[in-house]
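Record type: ASSEMBLY
Status: queued
Input:
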Amino acid sequence: MKKLLHVALGVVTSFGGFLEAGSIATSVQAGAEFGYSLLWVLLLGVVCLVVLIEMSGRLAAVSHHTIAGAMRERFGFSFFLLPLIGVVAVSMLTLAAELGGVCMALQLATGIGFQWWALPVMLAVWLLLWRGTFGVIEDGVSLLGLVTVAFLIAAVRLHPSAGEVAAGFVPSAAPYAPSRYWFLAVSILGATLTPYLFYFYSSGAVEDGWDADDVPANRLVSAFGMGFGATLAAAVLVVAALVYTRGVRLDSYDQIAPMLTDALGRWGYPLFVAALGIACFGAALEVSLALAYMIAQGFGWNWGENARPRDAARFSVSYTLALVLATALVVVGLDPLRVTNVAMALNAASLPLAVVPFLVLMNDREYVGEHVNGRLANVLVLVVVALACVLAVVSLPLELAGG
Amino acid sequence: MLHLVRDVLDKQLVDREGRPFGKVDGIVLEVRDGAALRVIALEVGAATRLGRLPRWLTRWLGRWSARATSTRLPQASVVAVGREIYVAVDATQTAAWRVEAWLARLITRLPGGG
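Status: finished
Output:
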């Protein structure tokens, strides 16, 4: 019974915590510009995410190692610096995107420019991390995140044609504007497979003391939590496909904000603002923690969200510095939506660094014993990661030059 | 049979109070004529880590890397080698704890840090 409750809570929090700046922005843009035709990329990303999250929990449960800790051990200090620097760099940009998302939600709610909100938002995130405990942060924010169900309700109320939606799940080439199509495809993959997610997940699992008995529960939580969560991203895409004139390019949050009003009337605008703000706030907490986890675990410092800051000083200072640096990017006025787009494409580009060494660990009996990966999981992850990286390297320069 | 690189290098160090205080950054071996190699100490610290990086990178880091230090943990202080490596040392008395101690002092002066 307790285990069942544990699984249920895990699924609900994964669901509530699924959307963030990247998945909202990329889904809206994809829907508005290309209708349902990028849904298949979202599906591909989510299947791969489920596999990676399950791997991350399995590594933690069986070996009691976090991904970063095990990578440092297995590959040595010099090699470890590559994934560390790569993932830290893109996660910093991702953190700026999430903080920017919260600030934009506050701008939409009050009319006061987003840059003015950067410091108060940073302080709020920092205080929760500094004073809160892991459970409060994770579960509390994810439960608030259930407001993102508004997207699902909106999608249903707009009565999309089931046949057309289903057709979107069939892989297809670009109907027009191929470079933009593939850039959005890679942004969706990057937003779905952000490396901080699985690094974060393994840290939480170690902090919660999972063991080999938790392997089946972990499988359920990752499959259902991420699977249900992805329906929210799909709902965002579907709503955007139905409410925007096909092909319109959304370059600011001001254009995105009214997306729910067609379906939800006067509740649409406030619900969008709340969903954006809470989703990005939750993600900002997670990314800050993930950054500090990676660094502390790689260098063998004391770490843990449940430890008092003075007992894990370098760890606490790490997330503090990460927040300060990312906030600086918001304060100088970089457009939050633009930062989000670039960050998501870079997340995709960083996947080989973040994932391939992780995959080696998951095939090493020294770490996971009999719980090594199956061949299907290995092939799927490698194919999606290679696809994401190649697309990112090709389409990001084109997008930056064109935009 | 212990495999030094696989089972010792880069593993988590835990001191006698159960405090994690770094990873095994280096292993000090003694070479003697006619005798087998012998482990005499483990090292933890930035100096050892920097020594493992490619030369062009450390040269680029320049003066900063010259100031780095390392702590030697004598082989006799190693209590157990498993998933972690336990050493009978008080980490807070070593150079490996200097930054942590300095930051912890800073934090206790902040409101709410203690």
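Annotation: Chain A is about 80% helix and 0% strand.
Annotation: Residues 115 and 331 of chain A are 5 Å apart (CA to CA).
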